[in-house]
Amino acid sequence: MNSYGYWILGLAVLYTAVLIVLGNIVRRRATSAEGFWVGGRSFRPWMVFACITGLFSGSTFIAVMELAYLKGVSAAWYGVAEMVHVLIIAIVLLGMFRRKLVVTISGLIGDHFGRFALGVAGLITALTFPMWSVATALSFASAVSAFTNLPITVSVIISALLLLIYLQAGGMWSVVMTQTANTIMFALMFIIGAVAFFIKPGIGGLTQLAASRPEMFDPAGVGLQVIIAWFATFLINVLLAQAALQMALSCRTVEEGRRGLLMAVGANIFFIFFGVLFGLAAATVVPGGARGMIQVPLYLAQVLPAPLVGLFFLGVWACALGWGAPCQFSGSTSLGRDFMGAVNPGLADEQKVRYTRISLVILTGLMILLSFLRSDQAAWWNVLAWTLRNGATFAPVVAALFWPLATRRAAVTAMLCGFLFGLAWYYLGGWHPSNFYLNIHPVFVGMSANILGLVVVTLVEQAGKWRIGGPNLAAVRRSLALFSGTATAAVLFLILTSFGWLHKKGLLGLALFLVVTGLYLLILSVVVPKEEMVADMETDPATA
């Protein structure tokens, strides 16, 4: 291990020790269950801003910087997709979820579909969050390995144990304290990185890069299908972003929570800009590498002294913590509060908090285990987590919010179908991180099975209790039906006329999923309970 390695590891350990102390200081604020899970719903806008910035912007910076080294400026689209995702949550969804006093997405499913659905949703959600945590931890560990002799898995073990120690203290209060400190570290990281850029390669270096490798400045260089997949993933995730919602819903009022989210959207511009800038700088100075998170520290070592490189990567460590801490905590909430609450409905809130703390230990062990299974493919765990969690919970969440006909049996069937079909599709593709069976992403297979399972079982089980709406259908429903029907027909036409092109570009799965989603929205619009139609007829002035 050289001096750079000592500075990186030393500062990371010292910083985390400070976070542990801060976490214990705020322990007294987490005395109640609501205080532990959602901060007593007393967060101010700056707290929501710090939480969301640490969660999404930190992980965005790592993803964009690494990809920018390989693909150039087109990596920025990942951050733009994430910004749109947070913006929709702020403007459209925050008020709806706050009115329902949602703590977790699995809890929302349980509230609507009962105890068994709560258990299934809680377990699946809990199992996927350590996958997201380990993915970011592996990225940071790759950077550490450039200067040390530590195996990547050892770095992940240290990360997981440190997360466990300070999350045990104050729950959501520990999260907000950590994210506030992380936000300060992000600013320091940007300043140090900007200094390094102007020392070498500077604006002139980027000009030379543009001349020698013009593809690095192609706005679509990463590939159209990849960009579309990013936007599709984040748009789908707006209803399922449990960790983000859990932090945003800790706000005192909806308006304050919305203000904090919008502040985080604005701040994300800096993370995108500097992520691209540092990735391009590394591509200019130390080209030819396979991993941006390894080449960036090698670039900085040519420009800055060891203490400054250590401080820069303390910011990267803050990015990893900013993503990993909320993921581990939110997953533990689903396991300790929701799953255990389903197993034993008689548990008091204080007992559920204790099980949440125990769940943190369990998910820490799972995070460490996952790091041993695929330590060289951090992105693979992200994709698998999206597939399993979104494939299981998407349709039940939509139904819980908008379709009262949906039944408990249908919700459970949907979750199991989505989970198992997504897993099976991965198996058929040999568990490859990017080359999927029939060139169709498993998440689209899982989510399509999820929707179809819920719709089919509901319509069969509720036979005789529903009807297709007629002239008394509400205006909002008619508009949604017209939009979804038209969009579905348009996508079907695209599939029929461009099947080969869609398959070659890897967009066929997305197109088929859009058809299934369009049909789902159409059914939600026009298939209503008979008693609802009677009520509409009794209250509609046109029928009086």
UniProtKB/TrEMBL annotation:
Keywords: Membrane, Transmembrane, Transmembrane helix, Transport. CDD domains: SLC5sbd. It is found in: Membrane. Coiled coil: none annotated. It is a multi-pass membrane protein. GO terms for cellular component: plasma membrane. The chain crosses the membrane at residues 6-26, 46-69, 75-97, 118-144, 150-169, 181-199, 219-240, 261-286, 306-325, 355-373, 379-403, 410-428, 440-460, 480-501, 507-528. GO terms for molecular function: transmembrane transporter activity. Belongs to the sodium:solute symporter (SSF) (TC 2.A.21) family. InterPro entries: Na/Glc_symporter_sf (IPR038377), Na/solute_symporter (IPR001734), Sodium:Solute_Symporter (IPR050277). This is Solute:Na+ symporter, SSS family. It comes from Desulfofundulus australicus DSM 11792. Pfam families: SSF. Gene3D superfamilies: Sodium/glucose cotransporter.
